[in-house]
Amino acid sequence: MLVLVTGATGKVxxxxxxxxxxxxxxxxxxxxxxxxxxxxxxxxxxxxxKGSISDRDTVNAAMAGVTxxxxxATVKExxxxxxxxxxKGMFWLLEAFRTSATAEQFxxxxxxxxxxxxxxxxxxxxxxxxxxxxxxxVYALSKVIEEVMLEQYYIQYGINGCCLRAPWIMxxxxxxxxxxxxxxxxxxxxxxxLISAEQQAQYHADSKVPLLIDAKSETLKRNFVHVTDLxxxxxxxxxxPKARQHLFxxxxxxxVDYGAVAQHLEQSHGLASxxxxxxxxxxxxxxxxxxxxxxxxxxxxxxxxxxxAFAYQRAANDPRKIWYAG
Length: 326
Prior knowledge:
By secondary structure, this protein is an alpha/beta fold. The chain has helices at residues 11-22, 56-63, 79-98, 138-157, 174-178, 197-205, 227-237, 258-269, 288-293, 302-311, and strands at 2-6, 30-35, 46-50, 68-71, 105-111, 161-166, 168-170, 209-213, 221-222, 224-226, 246-249, 256-257, 273-277. Helix 3 (79-98) packs parallel to helix 4 (138-157). The longest helix is centred in the N-terminal third of the chain and has 20 residues, at 79-98. It starts with a strand and ends in a 15-residue tail after the last helix.
């Protein structure tokens, strides 16, 4: 098995490679990483191809002899790069895959931006059959294009592929910083759109955590997944015939309830909360299909996600990295 991984140097990519290289089940698997700006440490089962995914010759060279593709490379709100990576890059990968004599499976890692996560409203759990309703911006559009392009290759050429659609991906102390009112906040929401600068500064000084309220005046519920749970789902789908031409929602069994988070942190850490009204919608990304077909089960629930994030102690050689804004 020779697995081409794009986005191998990111949060998910590094966790995936560590998992594959340390598990005897995957002892015969070799990794080829297509890298653009960053690199990987040397390993006898890992090789690197340097170049842009938007360049056809680079992609063809990276695809030589590959059996499986895991496509994670992406960019955020950059129109030029988003189209180069998500449209041109995806197209060249799929073209090389469908004409390859060795290629067996194409796996795309998607995101819940295609269903608008907390921006778009749904009146039922969001399943793989729910309509795509991306929020404004080129990033969400690019992820929709990726999913649709892969589906069309199923129809046009009958290729074996699958897509794992993940919500906001957490690791280490990420979730603690999601709840910060300071400059170290990870992701969002941007506080300046919801509260005054004075309120934000006071909440930060008081070590408060946000208790977000949704558009229906109920506590906001948003979907998350821990990076290790996502990687386990990826490995459950890798080479699995039951994954053929399927889309899977990969998320915690229940969305994170900001009210339950506030209550947990008050009881466990004595932290008070600040109630903040938002225009956001509570949605539930339903993972039933993945649990059924892939026999995958997330290990993280709300309590474990929060507790581990607040207990995590960073080593001096483990600086906090923001792979994407959120």
